[in-house]
Amino acid sequence: MKEHIKKLRKELDLTQQKFADKIGVKRNTIAMYEMGKTIPSDQTVKSICREFNVNEEWLRNGIGEMFKETPSDALDQLAYKYHLSEADYIMVEKFVTMRPEARQLLFHYMKEINAIFENTSIDLSAPAYKPLPIGKILDTKQETETKHKPTINEHPKHHRRQLEG
Fold first, then answer.
1. Which of 64, 95, 122, 143 gives 20 to 30 Å between its CA and that of 56?
2. HSE of 103 in the Cβ direction (CA atoms, 13 Å)?
3. How confident is the model at residue 131 (pLDDT cuts 50, 70, 90)?
4. Distance between CA atoms of 78 and 71, rounded to whole angstroms?
5. Is 91 helix (H, G, I), strand (E, B) or coil?
6. Cα–Cα distances in Å, from 148 out to 143, 144, 145, 151, 161?
7. pTM of the model
8. Average pLDDT, the chain
């Protein structure tokens, strides 16, 4: 593992001190790992992998790629494979980066909506409002025009009470 830690550090262009600082150990600890005098604990290996996005199998045994695939690499592959548009890509990226609890809430919300559509005969193209007869539209317009809303200067106590709530 000593060669892998040194190779990783060099690849990242970090001094032993900066590498050590990133994973929370002392500089001489990194030197000891690189010389093979000590072996990092499992916790230290996990810290290195987490901090630098390193493939643990590569770090321990030299198998596979040095770095794990980043989420954007995986998304790029999905975009290519499924011919995703920019909007599709953003939607998938936002979904996979949501907290698991938020994804569960989204699924629950979608199931509620689906249940409503399954249990009713809603016309998906029908407007959500009922058109008003033309006479009613004119009456509403006249009411709006004649209604006077008091200004702050006309009713300061009323507005103060609203603000103080």
1. 95
2. 10
3. confident
4. 11
5. helix
6. 10, 8, 8, 9, 20
7. 0.46
8. 84
